[in-house]
Amino acid sequence: MLLVAFWILYFLCSAIRSNIGIAQTMNKKEGHDLMTLLGLTPKDVSTALALFYVSYVIFDFPSNLIMSKLSPRAWMARIVFATGVVGACFAAVQDAWSVKFLRFLLGLVIAGMWPGMAFYLTLFYPPSRTGKRIGMYFTAAQVSAAVVGLVSAGFQLMDGVGGLAGFRWMFLIYGLVAIVLSVILLWWLPDRPLAPGQIRTRPKWLRWLPATPEALTGEDAVIHYHDLRRVYHSRPWTLRDLMLVLLDWRLWPLTLMYFGVVGVGIGTQLYGSVIIAAIQPQATSIQVSLLFAPIWIMDLIAILLVTPISDRFHRYRAVFFAGAACIQIAGLLTTTFALKNGWARYGGLLMVGFGLGPTVPICMAWSSEIFQRRHGEVGVAAATALVSGLGNLGSVTTTYALYAGWPEDAASGPHQFRKSNLTMVGILCVSIASALVMMALLKVFGNPPSTKLYDNDSASEFEDGAARRETQQRGFGRFHRRSAHRA
C-alpha cells in the first residue's frame, strides 16, 4: 500500500519537475516550443532550472524535520498538492521572469518529498532493507521520464487546441492530476505504526484528517513491534541531537556521492532531448521524444537488477555504487567522443541511463542505514534531507554552470557539450572515491550509536530484530566462511 502510493506520487511530481526539459523541443518546427514562444535564451533556461535546485537545497532540510514532528501523511499530501498547483501554473507562463519565479517556487514546495519518503519508509522497514524498496518507487522517476517523452508526442498533437500550445496542455494536465492525487493520499497513506494494544489519538489541530485503516494489525503488528521497536520507543529529538548529526563526518562522503550522480541524472533528464536532437539532426521533434524514453527504460532495468542485490550485501553498497558510476563514465565518454556515429553516441546515453539507475537509491538507503543506527529517527530525517539537499548542488552545477549554462560549450556542432560531459566525468570520479573512502573508514571506525537514542536505559534492547537476522544471514562474509570451511 505504502510503496504503491509512493510510486504514483513520485511519478507525478517527477513529471512536473522535469517536463520543462521536453517542453524545449515540443512543436519546435511550428515555433511553438517553450523557448521560441516565450523568447527565452539558453541562459534564461539554465537559470530557471538552477533556481529550482537553489530553493530545493534551502528548504529540503527543514521540510524533512517538520515531517518528523507532524503527521507524515498530512505533510506528504501537502507537498503533492502544492506541487500540483505550481505545476499547473506553468501553463500560464508568458516570459522568462515568470518561468524563473515558478521554478523557484516549485523547488520550495516539493522540497522534502524525496528524503521524506525515505524517512517514512524507515517507520515500517529496517534501514538495511530499504534499498530495494527505495528502488521500487524510484523507478517512478524513470518511468515518468520515459512517459513524459512518449506522452509529449500526444500533447504535441494538441498544439493549438483551445488556443494553447502543446506544452501548456502538458503543464496543466499534470498539475491538475497531482492536485486530485493529493486529496486521495489523505485516505491512502498510513499513519505511524502503533504498538500492539495502543489506541491512536490526535491533537485537536489534526482532527480534520480523515481516519485511515492501520497499516499493521494483529500478528503483523506484534512481529513489527519486536523487529522495529526503535520506531515505537524513540525519544523526542533536541537541538543537541541535531547538531551531533550535522557534525558527523559520515554525512559528507555520502553527500559527495550524491552530488555527482544526481548532477549527471538531472543533466540527462533536462538536456537529454537536446543532446539527442544534436546527434540526430534529421530527427523530428516527435522522434526525439520517442528516442528519449529508452534512456529511462535502461535506468529502470538497472534499478530492478541491482538494488535488491545491494540490499542483500548491504555492507558492500560502495562497490555497487562505484560500479554503476563507472558505467556512467563509460557512457559519457562514448557520447562525447564517438563523433562519426550518431547511434553510437545515442548508445552512450543508454549506458548513462543504466548506470544512473541504482546510484541514488543506494545513497539514500546507505544514509538511512548508517544514521538510524548512529542517531536514531532524527538521524534519518536530517541525513537523508542533507544528503539529498546538499547533493542537489550537483543539479545546480549541471543546470547553471554546465550544458546550456556554458554558452561556448552549448554552441551547435560536433563538440557540443563536450566540456560539460568531461566535467561530469571528473565529478563522478570524486563520487566513486568518496564511496570507497566511506567504506574503508567505516571498517576502521565502525558506526556506534552517538548518544542515547531511546526512551529506555538499554539501547541494545531496541536493536532491530530484522537487521540482526540480516547481519547473521546475509553478506559476502558468510559466503567466504562457507568457502573456507569447504576447503
Description:
GO terms for molecular function: biotin transmembrane transporter activity; dethiobiotin transmembrane transporter activity; solute:proton symporter activity. By secondary structure, the chain is an all-alpha fold. Helix content is 73%, strand content 0%. The longest helix has 29 residues. The C terminus is likely disordered.
What's the layout of helices and strands?
Elements: H1 2-23, H2 34-38, H3 42-69, H4 72-89, H5 96-110, H6 113-121, H7 130-157, H8 166-188, H9 218-227, H10 229-233, H11 239-246, H12 251-279, H13 285-312, H14 317-337, H15 342-356, H16 359-375, H17 377-391, H18 393-401, H19 407-410, H20 418-445, H21 465-473, H22 476-486
Helix pairs in contact: 1-4, 1-7, 1-8, 1-12, 3-5, 3-6, 3-17, 3-18, 4-5, 4-6, 4-8, 6-17, 7-8, 7-13, 7-16, 11-17, 12-13, 12-15, 12-16, 12-17, 12-18, 12-20, 13-15, 14-15, 14-16, 14-20, 16-17
